Amino acid sequence: MKNKIIPIIIITFFSLIMWGSISLSGEFTTTIKVPVSLIDLPKNYTKGAISDKEIYLRLRGKGWELAKLSIAGNQEFLISARRQSGKQRVNLRDEFENNSWLTSSFRVIEVAPSSIQFDVDRIITKKVYVKANLVVEFKESFGIASPINIIPDQIEISGSESQLRDIDTILTELTDLKQLSEPVNISVKLMEIDGVNYSADKCRIEFDVQKIVDKSYDDINVEVRNVPQSKELILYPGKINVVLKGGINKLGRLTKDSITAYIDFWEVLRNDDGGIEPVIKIPSSTILVDVKPKKLEYIIKQY
What we know:
- Helix content is 16%, strand content 51%.
- With 303 residues, the protein is of the alpha+beta class.
- It folds into three domains: 25-121, RNA Polymerase Alpha Subunit, Chain A, domain 2; 123-210, YbbR-like domain (RNA Polymerase Alpha Subunit, Chain A, domain 2, Beta Complex), CATH 2.170.120; 213-302, RNA Polymerase Alpha Subunit, Chain A, domain 2 (Beta Complex), CATH 2.170.120.30.
- The strands form six sheets. Strands 2, 5, 7, 11, 12 and 15 form a six-stranded mixed β-sheet that branches. Strands 9, 17, 19, 20, 21 and 22 form a six-stranded mixed β-sheet that branches. A four-stranded mixed β-sheet has the order 4-1-3-6.
- The termini are far apart.
C-alpha cells in the first residue's frame, strides 16, 4: 500500500507544478503599493514635507513576472529632485525611467496619485529634550521617592528644516512598569520620527521607589521677610508643625531644617482675614499633608 501512495504524491506534486506553470504563463493584472523615495538631492538637503509617502501602481504582465515582483517585496518608487531645492511637483509617469524594476515585462495601467508634491529642505541640527513616556503602577503603599532622571536628558536631532521647526521634545517608547517596589534603572528606546536622525537612539531612566509614609516635623521657625526698618512684624505663634508624605528612607534623612516657612510683610498688608498662611517650601519628591496652625495671627509695630 505504501508503495502505491508515494507515486501518487509525486504525480500530484508535478501536476500542481505544471498547472501553476501553465496558469502563470498567461497575463494578469494586479495592484501594488510601494513607498516613495527621493533621489538626486542637493548637497546638505533632504526630503521635507511630501504629499504622499506611498503610491499605488496597477500593472499588467505575465503571471510569473508579477509573482516575482510580489515575492521580492522591496521595491521603492524613486523620484528625482533634479538637484533642486524648494517646493516641487512631478508627474509620476515621468519618473518611470528612474525605476529600473518597472521593466518592459510590465505595462503600467494606472498610477495613483498621478502626481506628487514635495519639499526639498536644508538639513539642520538642533538640541531637544528627551521625555519619559511611562505608565507606572506601584505595589500597595509604595510610590516614587525621587525625581525621574533621564540620561541623556537632551539629544541632537537632524533633518529637514520644516520638519524640525516644531519639534522640541523626543518621547521614549511607551513603557509599562507594574507592581513597582524597588528602584528603577532601565534602558528605553526613543520613539522614531520618519526622516529625523538622532545622536542617540536610547536613554536610561532612573528613579527611586520606596514605601510611602507620613512624618511630622515640629517647631519649624517661621521667618518674616521684607519688613521695613521702621516696622516690626510679630507672629503668634512663631513656629508651626508640618506633616510630609514621601519615601520612608527620604523622610528619615530629613530634619526640620529641610523645611522653610516664611511670611512676607507686604502680603500681610494686603491681607484682611485677620490671619495669614505661611509660605512653606518642602524638599522635592515630598507632599505637604498638614500644617498646624494653618494661619498665624500677627501684630505690626511702628517705630
